[in-house]
Amino acid sequence: MSRIALPRHRFVPRILAAAALTLAGCVAAGPTAGPAQAQGRGEPIVLMNNKGGNVLQAISRREDLARSGRPVEVRGYCRSACTIYITLPNACLGPGATVGFHAPRIPGTTIVPPIVDQLMAQYYRGGILRKWQNEWRHSLEMSKISAAEYKRLDPEVRICK
After folding, report:
1. Which residues pair with 106 in a beta bridge?
2. Angle subtended by helix axes 12-24 and 55-68, to nearest 10
3. 74-109 pLDDT tens trace
4. What are 6-27's pLDDT values in tens digits?
């Protein structure tokens, strides 16, 4: 009996979807958290010029940052998966920051895995969420906005001093 060898990349979306579903059950929904986390104590954690990366790892890091209770400053450029940190209750966005959105994809490909865009969407609100749902999650091109534009689209975001 011979086996048919299928390319490994055909299984990546299924594996990623299964991992995302598993993780979705373990992740707190939405960008809000308790009052103790919102106050932020200690030295700030500065996220400077963050290109993003793996969404599942970013979700895990986001939870760690929220639990830390320390202030989180998102400064410089924040692209892709980094954008989910901006709505942390203990975070602020640098006034000179540039924020970039695009469809999540498997690295080195144009394959947009299922569910990952929905995982990211749970951390957006207001006009940012609307733009994500209607435009950015479908585009392989980076859409960049300023901190001022982010604030206009999401008035709840805090701009750092």
Report:
1. none
2. 20
3. 999 999 999 999 999 999 999 999 999 999 999 899
4. 344 443 444 444 444 333 333 3
Cβ count within 10 A of residue 6: 8
Can you tell me which residue has the tokens 């299924």? 14
Look at residue 161 and tell me if it is in a domain.
no
Q: Cα(first)–Cα(last) distance of the chain, in Å?
A: 68
What is the domain extent for residue 74?
31-153
Residue 20: inside a domain, yes or no?
no
- Of 47, 159, 153, nearest to 93 by C-alpha is 159
Cα 161 from Cα 141, distance rounded (Å): 31
Task: Output Rg (C-alpha) for the chain, integer angstroms.
Answer: 17
- In angstroms, the CA 81 to CA 115 distance is 14
Which stretches within 51-161 are classed as H helix?
A: 55-68, 116-121, 126-134, 147-153
In a domain, 10, yes or no: no
20: nearest Cα among 56, 63, 61: 56
Distance in angstroms (rounded) separating the CA atoms of residues 71 and 141 = 31
